[in-house]
Structures are given as C-alpha cells and as structure tokens.
Predict the structure.
Amino acid sequence: MVRPTLVIVAKSRSPWLAKGLADVVPTFLARGWDVWAHPKIQNAWNAAGLPPEAFRGDTRYGEGLPVPDLCLALGGDGTLLTAARHVGMRGTPLLGINLGSLGFLTCHPSGEARAVVEAYFQGGFRTETRTMLHAQVVRGTEVLGGRPALNDAVVNKGVVARIMEFRIQVDGHDAASIKADGLIVATPTGSTAYSLSAGGPVLYPALDAWVISAICPHSLTLRPIVVPAHLPVSITLDRTEDAHLTLDGQLEMEIHAGDRLELRKSEREITLIQSPEFSFFHLLGEKLHWSDR
C-alpha cells in the first residue's frame, strides 16, 4: 500500500515553527503519512518533540518522489511562494498556515493550525486555482531562460540609481514608452504585493489578467493598466545601466539594455486549499484595513 506524502516548506528561523510543527504533524503521522521537509528545520522538529525517525530530510523537497499529496507552508507569504516553486508547480495542493503577521496567501492563523488540519481531513476545505505568469529574457536571438511566477515579474534598478526606459507591447501592438525606476507585471495573486505599493489596483484572485505598473514613473499621466492574461506582453529595455529581473522576489538575473522580457500565461497553475469561510474582501479588511474611514 502506498503511503500518502506530506511535504513541509517552513520558515526555519520563525520562533513559532516548533509550536506549529507540534500542532500539525502528529495528525499526519497518526494517519500513516510520510513527512518530508528541508533538513534545516530538523532542529525545530526535535524541539517540537516529534519522533526523529519520522523526519525525512531533502533539500529538494522530495523532487525525485511521486507527486506529493499535500504541501504545508508554515511561515509567511514568502514561504508559500517557495512552496509554490518547489512543490506546487508539480501539481500538489498548498495549504498555508501563517506564522507571521501579513499572510495574504498563508491566511490560516497559526493559533488555528490544529483545527485547520483536522478540517482538511474532514473534507471541509475547498480548492482555489491561481494563474501563474511565465517570464523569459531574450537577448538578441538567445533565450536566457524562462520561469513561472505566482506573484510578479519585476524589473528594477540595482545600485546605480539611474532612470530606465522601456517599450511595452501587448499582443504585438505598441502600448507605451515609459521612463521609470522600474516596472512590475503582477498576477491577480500578486496584485496585493509590490504592485499595490506602486499604486496598482487590487485584482480579484479569480481574474485571468495581469496588471502592469511602473515604479516611480517620470510622468504625471501614466497609470497602471490591466490586460487579459491570454495576450502576450513584451517589454524592451531601451536604456539601463544596472537592472535586474526578479520573479516572486526570490529568483533574480541581471538584464541589459536591448534585452526583451517576454511574458505570457504559464501552462502551470497553483492550487490553494482554503477554508469555506475564506473571503477575499474580509482578508483585505483584516490585512490592509480596506474601506476603513
């Protein structure tokens, strides 16, 4: 009989990790699940009083194994983005438990961790699919690599604080020429992250669209724009001296003047497991004080 598999992706430096592990792991072990995690959380595992022989450490989060049945993200939104990249893109659903303070993606509070896991086994949760953005850099005729992103693709300046110039095309048509400190293309999931801080709108998670926001544009008329996700977006850097492309705030590469960033809807999607009581608007009110006077 094949044993079900749980992968844990956790914020190893969180002071609440041991308590979180103690709350959630015994329920899985009691049901005969195999539990895999990065070796760096083994100290917290031991501090939680969990059986050492039940810990299966793997720096690649079980990448060589069959697709895990579930991934628990214990931490903040950065932890869930890591979980999405290493585990979720393989088709494993993600259940986020927040050990931090913000938690748009890991929205289940740590104080309810045990009840959340019990509700999962009772079938009381629903699944929610999130669209991903695929980004690749083209230099001349060479494609330098492509990666999916759950939140956003950001072109930002490095140490040299000089303005950058971009040309944006949507579905092959010229859309804008921009002078700015950077540019953000965000998914609906990422619309409440960096894009929001740059003045972009909040997109409902179920929308199939991107929002393009300039960072500190040198124009009083330029505003963020929302485009359908099925339309390809191309961004050419006409002028830059020190620029970087960052995906989900975690993967970074240097880009040069003349490079073209090509963005399209990824063939991969992320599945989140949510409480049936989850409300996106309640989350906005709780985390961002949405509509407070």
About this structure: The chain has two domains: 5-125+275-288, 133-267. The mean pLDDT is 91. The longest helix spans residues 17-30.
